[in-house]
Amino acid sequence: MSFEVESVRARFPQRRIEWYEVLGSTMTIAGELAREGAPSGTVVGADEQTAGMGRLGRKWDSQPESGLYVSIILRLMVQGSSLPLTMLALGLASKESIEALADISPDLRWPNDLLIAGHKCAGILALWEHDAIIAGIGINVSQTLFPANLETPATSLLLRGAKVRREDLLIQLLESIDRWTEMLTRHPEEILRRFAEASSYAKGRRVRVDQPGRTLEGVTCGLDPSGFLLVREDNGAQTTILAGGVRPA
Ligand code: BTN
User: Fold this and answer.
1) What is residue 77's predicted lDDT score, i.e. its pLDDT?
2) Are 26 and 45 within 8 A, CB to CB?
3) Which residues line ligand 1 (CB under 6 A)?
4) How many C-beta neighbours within 10 Å does residue 16 have?
5) Which of 19, 69, 95 to mutate to test the pocket of ligand 1 (most atoms within 8 A of CB)?
6) For residues 127 and 44, is the Cβ–Cβ distance under 8 A?
7) pLDDT tens digits for 104-139?
């Protein structure tokens, strides 16, 4: 089903929403618009991406009309170092929007994965572009097949029994992002608390993390004030995870 962008525009009449049938990546177009000065809240979405980007240089499978693929320009009153916290706020917003439309409560895996029973149903990529953050969000809505050999097995809302319209999901997502980014700018410590509450990975979870030059294994022990994950390694050392893929050990 083609995306009825007008129904989303009608709910957000002040907002610039660009929709494409097919493009390389919404991140590229949103980045260009941000450099041209497009306002906060501008949305770039597509029915299909031919070069969807994931974290850590991975590809994001973006089959036609079956996922929500959007990038949102955010101009927030946050410091340059707030990207990890912003990722956590976007994860909470994405989780809330799925919960509002489906009888599903995804887990959050630091920093950016939404999982249903260990299968990934959404991912978030957040990048600075000049003076704006580009929040790229991909949610698997109605896929029934995924590429083989994914780092984490994938699922979609449909495969978990929920029929959700992409338009409704985008409306809900934009409302949730407004709320959670407002909280981020006013009470950043609350984002840490709420993420730690919502994520089974934040504390007491045995994980393996790929780091430059080595893979470490240990038990998660919370988040630091910037939103980075803390892991207690088996030799007792506490390591701050700045980036890298976190997997259950
Ligand atoms: C990840 O989990 O690795 C992050 C995935 C982010 C995918 C979204 S889809 C919309 C936006 N455009 C992209 O090319 N990537 C993000």
Assistant:
1) 85
2) yes
3) 25-27, 49, 52-55, 58, 60, 69-71, 112-113, 123-125, 136-138
4) 14
5) 69
6) no
7) 999 999 998 999 999 999 999 999 998 999 999 999
Q: How far apart are CA 27 and CA 59, in angstroms?
A: 13
What is the pLDDT averaged over residues 153-174? 98
> What pTM value is reported for the model?
0.96
Kindly give the distance from the C-alpha atom of residue 29 to the centroid of ligand 1, in angstroms, as a whole number.
13
Domains of the chain and CATH, by start: 5-197 (3.30.930.10), 202-248 (2.30.30.100)
C-alpha distances in Å from residue 44, one per residue of 1, 74, 108, 141, 219: 19, 12, 24, 18, 38
- Report the residue among 18, 22, 27, 32 best suited for mutation to probe ligand 1: largest number of ligand atoms under 8 A from its CB: 27
